[in-house]
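note to self — DONT lose this again. spent like an hour looking for the file last time. sequence + predicted structure for the chain T wanted, 545 res
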Amino acid sequence: MKGESHIPKWAEKFLSWYCRHEILEEIQGDLYELFDKRAKKKSVRFARRRFIWDVLRTFRLSTIKHVQLPNNLAMLSHNLRFTFRRFTRQKLNTSLHLVGLTIGITVCLLIGLFIRHELTYDTYHAKADRIYRVNQVWEVNEEKYLHYGAPTPLAGALREGRPEIEAIGVAFPQNERIVEINPRNKFLQPNIVLADTGLLDVFDFTIIQGDAKRTLSEPNHAILTKSTAEKFFGLQDPIGKTFTYREDKVITVGAIMEDLPTNTHLPASILLTFSKTEDFIVSNLNNWGLVYGASTYVVLGKGVDPTSLHAPIRELYDTHLNDPDEDPEIGYAELQALTNIHTNTEVAGGGKLVKAISPGVLWFFGGISIGVLLLACFNFINLSTTQAITRIKEVGVRKVIGAGRRQLINQFLLEAFVLLGLSALLAVLLTHLLLPEVNGLIKKDIAISSMYQAEFIGLTILCLIAIGLFSGWYPAWLTAKIQPATAVKASYSSSDKTSNWLRKGLVVAQFSLSAGLLLAMIIMSRQMKYFHEANLGFDRENILS
């Protein structure tokens, strides 16, 4: 053919690769003819472009070659088709399986996200493994009392001659304060933190506008988070704007930072200049005997043992504060790892802005998730073993035509894993829908993106595999062990003692777990009611701070 040499070779090879042999020659002839006509009427370049487009347009299901799968893949494809056909025919049974597994997996995902959120507090800081909080300790008659604060002069003393300390910062969280933008625009602002410039070297604050160091070194200046700046000043440029703090102090905005992650024990919305903002602090800058809630944080050098600082800190306290002859109370300080703050309730509840959570609570919720998942698995096993009786003839026919026991077990395991996979997809969708409601209920801000972290996905997949094997193996083995002659005659009886004992045991376990979970929820509900309604012995509305 005259123009054949100009035809794009890769497009021609692609056509030969995918097109069925019985229609390939006809399609090629038509495309070659069209190519020649277009090349004569317009140009070879135009004809080449249209030839490529025609080849791509011809790529359809009706023209694609039939792919001969390897035996294993062909068997898998056949089993999958059979599995979905069976699901569509037994809609009620399939729905029961899906509902039970979906609820169990959804509960586990929600509780898993909650536990991960609690265990990853403050881990986003680049130096999280080397950051420590210096906690005040009082010891009287060998009884220890801990507090998250430390005397103000301790930070300055540690900065002198301690090469193992890379950075030191001080933070003093405040109660909710009234912030006035103008006479008509006032806010009761939470999470205000008085901070010195060293805190910027300890924690990772992402500054997006302004000079943070300069801001915290000048009196009556503040760094606002992005959302706080928008709340105060809308779309206006906040740098240089002012607001009134505690009715008498005019604060100038010097920098803006990104909002902090929700899983932090120091969720600052405003960082205020530390020493010059509060007269109370200024008058106690050198008072070693006063701990008012300001926390000192240090970043240790790589490989430094935090306990190595306990002795030098004790010496500072002995020099400036302790006098056993006059006061039996001894003061000193200990270092607490940043990543341990949120899960250690012994240190005055963890902190002022965010209270610590007991590891026992996390274990409790983890136990609930496992219990709910076990209920779903037991329900799956019971339904599957009961249904084995209805599959007698199917098993008999398969065995008569040559199916081995291993093939049957693989088929039934495949059905279990397909059901599990569908349930997992539905559970992910439900988790997306329910997480905002759960956040509102527990007063948290758990991000759905945590569910797509690599370690969370990997752990979820491993759990799903374990669930599939645990819940699918016994029903598969029980169904596959039926003898062909017995199955074909439909004379199989479900009176096998082992099976009966297992089903009865699973039913008892289901009821026991259900009762235990119900009891646990009742106790927790009453504890929360007591927590909110108990008489504390004072009127919380009439407290002055």
